[in-house]
């Protein structure tokens, strides 16, 4: 399947999450409760994965301006909680009063559906399986690529140090693990044993698994640890092209995994607060042309084909696979690969 490839962050970027009120809690804990007063002063909380903070920092003002223009006299503020996608989902499951969740894998929202917090069939409530933009996994290497990293198999070489997020708690890390595994299956004509051998060698070259995608970026770019960072393409592009020009390069693997970033309303929260309409409007606006343009400008692949066409130069063709087509649905993926004692744990034990 062909797809299109669509962030040393300063302290300000690490903490700026919302135009109105910032709630940057790595695990989503202790995020301020949402309140709504007589329909005129509305506060929404968006629980999101950590690498999405730059997008929502700019998206929130777009939505607020649009919504307030259509609802004169209404004041809207949006708070953000960022962390590893699965940690965020668990925080919401444990009581974090998020009106909406914007994650990087569907299993995190499925968890909330199973607990009765998100409506059944949430993926059909919005277009494109409720994922307004997509991405994939790429490599960020240091200038001139000193270790000559070209593809997943190069990550298994002796002397290569890799930085990734923890696949047990982070969607970013899971996509990295599955990307390597999928490549291994293709390279060995479906030989599971040989594919696992490749992945085990890659994990052996990964001394530490960071808490989330942004923590992994900070370790690689600011702490100068590692030879290669495996991360979402929007993160790699934003670092190399907008924040640290000339210091890093992006390597696109020959075969890599596609990633959707699904969104949903947390019905149990909005029903209690009476914020159903604005929460849904907040998510629906992600498909608007201004929001799709913003996504493209931050190297997220927009769903709008006209917007994508206008930014085609930023999105080289990639040969990708979806995790569902390669490994089955996310329920199976989580049980088989990332549950305690699963394949990830088995291969990590070989380090």
From TrEMBL:
Keywords: Periplasm, Signal, Transport
Superkingdom of the source species: Bacteria
GO annotations of cellular component type: periplasmic space
Classification via Pfam families: SBP_bac_11
Subcellular location: Periplasm
Molecular-function GO terms, alphabetical: molecular carrier activity
Signal is among the record's keywords: yes
Principal location class: periplasm
Record's protein name: Sulfate-binding protein
Signal peptide: 1-20
InterPro entries named in the record: Thiosulph/SO4-bd
GO biological process: sulfate transmembrane transport
Designated gene of the protein: sbp
Keyword Membrane: no
Organism: Neisseria lactamica
PROSITE patterns on file: PROKAR_LIPOPROTEIN
Family: Belongs to the prokaryotic sulfate-binding protein family.
């Amino acid at each position: 399947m062909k797809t299109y490839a669509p962030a040393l962050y300063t302290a300000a970027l690490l903490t700026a999450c919302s135009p109105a009120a910032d709630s940057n809690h790595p695990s989503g804990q202790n995020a301020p409760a949402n309140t709504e007063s007589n329909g005129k002063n509305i506060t929404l909380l968006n629980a999101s994965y950590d690498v999405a903070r730059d997008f929502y920092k700019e998206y929130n003002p777009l939505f607020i301006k649009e919504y307030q223009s259509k609802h004169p006299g209404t004041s809207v503020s949006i708070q953000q909680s960022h962390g590893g996608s699965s940690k965020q989902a668990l925080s919401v499951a444990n009581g974090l009063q998020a009106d909406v969740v914007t994650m990087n894998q569907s299993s995190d929202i499925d968890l909330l559906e199973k607990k009765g917090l998100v409506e059944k069939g949430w993926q059909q409530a919005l277009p494109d399986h409720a994922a307004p933009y997509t991405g994939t996994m790429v490599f960020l290497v240091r200038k001139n690529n000193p270790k000559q990293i070209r593809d997943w198999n190069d990550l298994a070489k002796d002397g290569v140090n890799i930085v990734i997020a923890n696949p047990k708690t982070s969607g970013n890390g899971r996509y990295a693990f599955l990307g390597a595994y999928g490549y291994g299956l293709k390279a060995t004509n479906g030989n599971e044993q040989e594919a696992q051998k490749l992945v085990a060698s890659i994990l052996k070259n990964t001394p530490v698994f960071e808490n989330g995608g942004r923590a992994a970026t900070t370790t690689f770019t600011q702490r100068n640890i590692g030879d290669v960072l495996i991360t979402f393409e929007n993160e790699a592009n934003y670092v190399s092209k907008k924040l640290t020009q000339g210091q890093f390069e992006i390597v696109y693997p020959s075969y890599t995994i596609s990633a959707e970033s699904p969104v949903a309303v947390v019905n149990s929260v909005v029903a209690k607060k009476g914020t159903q309409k604005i929460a849904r409007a907040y998510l629906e606006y992600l498909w608007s042309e201004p929001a799709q343009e913003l996504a493209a400008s931050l190297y997220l692949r927009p769903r709008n084909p006209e917007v994508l066409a206008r930014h085609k130069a930023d999105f080289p063709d990639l040969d990708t696979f979806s995790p569902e087509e390669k490994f089955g649905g996310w329920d199976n993926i989580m049980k088989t690969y990332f549950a305690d004692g699963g394949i990830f744990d088995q291969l990590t034990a070989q380090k």
